What we know:
Layout: E1 7-8, E2 11-12, H1 17-33, E3 43-47, H2 52-65, E4 68-73, H3 86-100, E5 105-109, H4 115-129, E6 132-137, E7 143-145, E8 152-154, E9 164-170, E10 175-181, H5 186-196, H6 199-210, E11 214-224, H7 229-232, H8 239-259, E12 264-269, H9 284-297, H10 304-316, E13 330-331, H11 339-351, H12 357-360, H13 363-372
Parallel strand pairs: 3-4, 3-6, 4-5, 6-11, 11-12, 12-13
Antiparallel strand pairs: 1-2, 7-8, 9-10
Helix pairs in contact: 1-2, 1-3, 2-3, 2-10, 5-8, 6-8, 9-11
Bound molecules: 1,4-dihydronicotinamide adenine dinucleotide.
The site of 1,4-dihydronicotinamide adenine dinucleotide (NAI) has 29 residues, from helix 2, strand 4 and strand 11.
Amino acid sequence: MIIQPKIRGFICTTAHPVxxxxxxxxxxxxxxxxxMIGNGPQRVVVVGASTGYGLASRIVTAFGCGxxxxxxxxxxxxxxxxxxxxGWYNSVAFEQKAKNEGLYARSLNIxxxxxxAKQRVVDLIKKDLGAIDLLIYSxxxxxxxxxxxxxxxKSVLKPIGAxxxxxxxxxxxxxxxxxxxxxxSQEEIDQTVSVMGGEDxxxxxxxxxxxxxxxxxxxxxxxxxxxxxxxKIIYRHGTIGRAKDHLEKTAKKLDERLKKTGGRALISVNxxxxxxxxxxxxxxxxxxxxxxxxxxxxxxxxNCIAQICRLFSTRLYTGNxxxxxxxxxxxxxxLETRPDVQAQVLESWKKLSQENLAQLADLDGYxxxxxxxxxxxxxxxxxxxxxxxxxxxxxxx
Length: 397
Ligand code: NAI
């Protein structure tokens, strides 16, 4: 089958297995070029391990720390003429590369919110690893069925209190547009907190702690975002921000609990990056394109793998106390939030027009990175070649 990108709105409905393998290989090469991280974790679970920050975390722990990894994700296998999802191909490639290096890697394609997912990970750890040193929580999900009540919650990206009108970008045509987002109802806020807040993270820790599977100096890290004033109404003061508040509160609670046995629970505030989830957030892609332009000009640009590599090598596993801000958060968005960077982004935002858009925004970079999330746009890959879309995960029966 010849596989080409098919873009519908902010999603690409096809993915390329060879391109996804290249995407994983490039991340692996990046990690390798930075050398091994001493004192890193050896037994790791990543929840949300197939794309974005979670995939980068799995790659850094495996190839930068030599860790055994269990990855949990929810992806689609190829069916008839439909390709698998990018996260599926990424995980196939990851497992193959881990196997080539003699590294243990098991994957579970399952809804992470359900009790069965936790039970299956518990069983795998008991059988193969004994305990774990690190759990990365990197879920970005549109919905959650609550494991106790059975109720389905959906996450929405809306402002709170009043509707909000902002310029945005229609990425399919590179045109500026004005969007108005309606204010969220209390029900929508609560549902978003249920999906993207910390309750499920706590359920994971409960399940593992109950079975005494948290190793000595166990650490768990979840990812959050703060962002500048420019995006506050939509992000940090919106429904997703409420969920992140809950996630951060959960981190404090878990940290108190784990500290008693030498463990830690932390939040890493990461930089805004193009991922499958973030490109779906209204207004944010326009901010990315302006931010990326400035960060590239200043030689400060980082992608997912660079962020996570730096998180592990300069924050989490240095042998020194983990540096956090006044709210106890690890700040990997330190370069994004630098005053000179933000001043320039704000200046671009204020003078933005359709005429100067291509000059002020890194549109080409955005489109390239977006396509690469699905395995397209790599010079090394021959996209005219016939490929088999059916790829099996080694560790699934
Ligand atoms: P992503 O869309 O690339 O990855 C989401 C992962 O969650 C995938 O592995 C997917 O399979 C998995 N997933 C979704 N629903 C699932 C379910 N029900 N069961 C099992 N797995 C499921 O997202 P991204 O951007 O890497 O986000 C990860 C975390 O990082 C999120 O908490 C996000 O808020 C945070 N973050 C993202 C930033 C960004 O700009 N992309 C910035 C800072 C934080």
